[in-house]
């Protein structure tokens, strides 16, 4: 009983931290899949995923808050796959469980991984000012901002100008083409928010600069480098960057935004077709749950970034009050002492997340077609999924504490 109480507390606490993360600017149910092998033989496997709770989390879709959901839960105790909802509201046919979706800020995990690979190759010094690599772009006012501070959002560079603050304002500009360089110029023309390294403010502009740094160092486009370094080695065959194309290529479920009407009713506006050049290296990736699971596992196992540089992804700046962001990830420690590493993402019509313990004893990837994906609160369906994923099926065997593999 004590174990179940602790895991429920863990899930509730995680839902709280992801609510904060999602607030940042930024059908039929499938049967469970058979158990997978343990990722760390020295660790007693976690109980199997709680299939009953996961099925309940997806029940009732579509509803007012989400039209579809795709889920993959894994770990040393087994795995579970599920989908619910509809492909689109017009036809009402079942959601495609293998659909592509807008992965939002989970893109930052990929960008960070490429920068850390360049650091491992000696091409980038994380402690060196970004202006050293981009002297024609970063002005003197930001000459102290280091590459590491861009990675962990402690740069003090403010956000670039945006087309508005309301959904209707963004919708009117959904096909605008945004230049990464112009966005950086817009941001760095303003005064710094704070002295670099003294505070943490999660903003896309940090990763826009990193995308330009990748291009400058490699001499290739950001899209080419991510495909060559990340997607191809991990066999992420259904993941890509759309560039200026506002469509989602290949099979995908539609995304909707709930828009209040003057008469008190709600319009569910199709927002599937939407340009993402404003997100670029910070949030424009299109992917699948299977591909994001490959990214999560490959990254944590050290198959993407060499171990010494991988530590940057599991290191939160200790001298910055309240910091939770590392290079590409966010750290959270539950009430029972379990350390979780995660990244969320949100584009209009779509919310996504990856989350895991560092030793991969429990992993989660989901895509939820939220009807208010940019809202301040966490989507209720996503919250139910999180609680169910981190509340394993009861196991009568004694359970060893979750352990973190030693750094190498």
Concise summary:
With 408 residues, the chain is an alpha+beta fold. The chain has helices spanning 2-22, 51-58, 107-120, 147-151, 167-172, 180-188, 205-218, 222-231, 280-283, 289-300, 307-310, 380-389; strands at residues 66-74, 80-85, 101-102, 256-260, 266-270, 286-287, 330-333, 339-347, 350-357, 363-370.
Strand content: 5-15%
Number of domains: 1
Largest sheet: 6 strands, antiparallel
User: N- to C-terminal separation?
Assistant: 36 Å
Kindly report the average pLDDT value: 88
CATH topology: Beta-lactamase
CATH class type: Alpha Beta
Keywords:
about 400 residues; alpha+beta; Beta-lactamase; two-stranded antiparallel ribbon; disordered N terminus; disordered C terminus
Please characterize this protein's 3D structure:
Strands 2-1-10-9-8-7 form a 6-stranded antiparallel beta sheet, with helices on both faces. A two-stranded antiparallel ribbon has the order 3-6. A two-stranded antiparallel sheet has the order 4-5. The chain has one domain: DD-peptidase/beta-lactamase superfamily (Beta-lactamase). The longest helix has 21 residues, at 2-22. It is an alpha+beta fold. It has helices at residues 2-22, 51-58, 107-120, 147-151, 167-172, 180-188, 205-218, 222-231, 280-283, 289-300, 307-310, 380-389; strands spanning 66-74, 80-85, 101-102, 256-260, 266-270, 286-287, 330-333, 339-347, 350-357, 363-370.
Reconstruct the topology from this structure:
Elements: H1 2-22, H2 51-58, E1 66-74, E2 80-85, E3 101-102, H3 107-120, H4 147-151, H5 167-172, H6 180-188, H7 205-218, H8 222-231, E4 256-260, E5 266-270, H9 280-283, E6 286-287, H10 289-300, H11 307-310, E7 330-333, E8 339-347, E9 350-357, E10 363-370, H12 380-389
Antiparallel strand pairs: 1-2, 1-10, 3-6, 4-5, 7-8, 8-9, 9-10
């Amino acid at each position: 009983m004590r174990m179940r109480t602790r895991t429920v507390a863990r899930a509730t606490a995680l839902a709280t931290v992801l609510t904060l993360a999602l607030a940042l600017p930024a059908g039929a149910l499938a049967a469970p899949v058979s158990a997978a092998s343990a990722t760390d033989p020295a660790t007693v496997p976690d109980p199997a995923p709680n299939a009953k709770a996961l099925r309940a989390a997806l029940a009732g879709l579509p509803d007012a808050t989400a039209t579809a959901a795709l889920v993959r839960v894994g770990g040393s105790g087994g795995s579970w796959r599920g989908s619910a909802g509809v492909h689109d509201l017009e036809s009402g046919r079942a959601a495609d469980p293998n659909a592509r979706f807008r992965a939002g800020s989970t893109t930052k995990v990929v960008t960070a991984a490429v920068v850390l690979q360049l650091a491992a190759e000696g091409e980038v010094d994380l402690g060196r000012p970004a202006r050293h690599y981009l002297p024609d772009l970063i002005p003197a006012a930001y000459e102290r901002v280091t590459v590491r501070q861009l990675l962990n959002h402690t740069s003090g560079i403010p956000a670039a100008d945006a087309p508005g603050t309301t959904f209707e304002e963004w919708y009117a500009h959904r096909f605008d083409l945004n230049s990464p360089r112009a966005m950086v110029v817009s941001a760095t023309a303003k005064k710094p928010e704070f002295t670099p390294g003294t505070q943490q403010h999660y903003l896309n502009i940090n990763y826009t600069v990193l995308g330009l740094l990748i291009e400058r160092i490699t001499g290739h486009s950001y899209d080419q480098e991510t495909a060559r370094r990340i997607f191809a080695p991990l066999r992420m065959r259904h993941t890509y960057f759309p560039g200026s194309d506002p469509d989602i290529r290949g099979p995908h479920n539609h995304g909707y935004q709930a828009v209040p009407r003057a008469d008190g009713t709600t319009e569910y506006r199709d927002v599937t077709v939407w340009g993402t050049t404003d997100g670029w290296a910070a949030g424009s990736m299109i992917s699948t749950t299977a591909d994001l699971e490959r990214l999560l596992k490959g990254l944590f196992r050290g198959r993407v970034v060499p171990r010494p540089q991988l530590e940057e992804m599991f290191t939160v700046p200790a001298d910055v009050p309240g910091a939770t962001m590392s290079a590409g990830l966010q750290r959270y420690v539950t009430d029972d002492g379990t350390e979780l590493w995660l990244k969320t993402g949100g584009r209009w019509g779509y919310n996504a997340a990856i989350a895991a313990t560092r030793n991969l004893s429990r992993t989660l990837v989901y895509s939820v077609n939220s009807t208010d994906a940019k809202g301040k609160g966490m989507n209720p369906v996503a919250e139910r999924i999180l609680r169910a994923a981190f509340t394993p099926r009861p196991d009568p065997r004694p359970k060893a504490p979750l352990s973190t593999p030693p750094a190498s």
